[in-house]
Amino acid sequence: MSGSPPRIVRTRKDVWTLGNAGDDLFWYQKAVGLLQSRPPTDPTSWRYLSAVHGYDPQSDPFAQSGDPLPSNADQQRFWNQCQHQTWFFLPWHRAYLACFEQIVAAAVVTLGGPPDWAVPYWNYSDTANPNARLLHPFFVGQTLADGSPNPLWVEGRNSTTGDFGIPDADVSLGALRDAPFTGAASGSDPGFGGPKTIFSHFGGTSGRLENVPHNQIHDDIGGLMGDPDTAALDPIFWLHHANIDRLWEVWTHRDPSFRDPTDPDWLASLSFEFHDASGTVLTFTPAQVVDPSQLLHGYQYGDISDPFAAAPRLAAEVAMTAGPPPHPELVGASAQAVVLDSPVTTAQVAFRPQVARAARARLAAARPARAYLNLENVTGTGRLAKYDVYIDVPPPGQETGGRQGLLAGGLSTFGVQKASRPGGPHGGSGITTVLDITDLVERLRREGRWDETRLHVTFVRRGGAGRQPPASNLRVGRVSVYYG
Ligand code: C2O
Fold this sequence. Notes:
Bound molecules: CU-O-CU linkage
Low-confidence stretches: none
């Protein structure tokens, strides 16, 4: 036995089990109010913490002339750091959230609360909870019972009630079935955690978990949450990210074939800087965050059980763990960019039949081929609408009959605006979304309807009472299909 005192590991709890006097949600509401009262020059203030994720003076809802902001050098070093479209997405947000948790916990203690506060998580994918997809009532009302402002409420979300109409596709946990942590930068499976990159603050291809549910939930809540430069100003942001971080834990505990990268470029080529509750600068490499019980104060989740534990492992899932992914092959693409300027837009994918046949034959030798729909280089500015993406093989003559076909997923616009700026790191080339359509293709094949030379992809704008008509200059650079 060692002589050191036992470490109290905090437990992050499901927000739907909270909301009573003295619990973690009760104290979150109070502590957020305290952080919001601090000036943005203070690294433990609400505005500074949000700017670490992203900041643009044009979209700062609290900016006033003469506003005291940190020095340019300080902003350059600590602001606009969040990692997206990269294998650093999960470790960066984990370290960010742990430092935030320490800062909020210190505020809770200042306010007279307990020493072991932990950030709650929002499990919108919980099929056992009928309220799972609703925003917890603590975040909904503009004022509290005593008439004072509710620190957890923000203006401009897509719904003024807790109901955002979040569809099944947006809370799918399909990403958890993806055993490779990292994958292709374009074409095929981008991996559970995202493609291998250098420092990546928007632009490129989203990883599976980052695309769904992460990006989708940002779009669904909308308002501040819909833009990376303001997202962390909405107090729900942190509960959303606690859940994404929890899903990383669920994934690593599924079975031994689900492993974090061992590539030194992931483990230690970058280190990320944050301030702790005392304002001291801390640095973290991904290697230093892989075990939550050893990160800062240490934390664990109330539930990391495997949502697919009872389901038999899919043959394709097993095959994906069997070896290195085969080289993906481009088998078809739209002739030009697809401009989403109307409620329904259909694009045809021109297939290269010989290439497709050869790719299928080559892949079949190793494992069943998978099909990936790539929505490449999505760009746009202003407030962008969200689209659902369908694939179909319409019978001849019915191509324009308003058929939708089979739902492949949602096209998220989270970060698209940032990734469209010509001065940005990717030269404004936008964000690429990869949707695994293997199961849909299989279904069409079984029904005798699959004809790859006649594949149509339809984008249907999502409506909704509370949503304003979009500015709509959303554009998909190319729609393509890869076998891989
Ligand atoms: Cu860095 Cu949910 O975003």
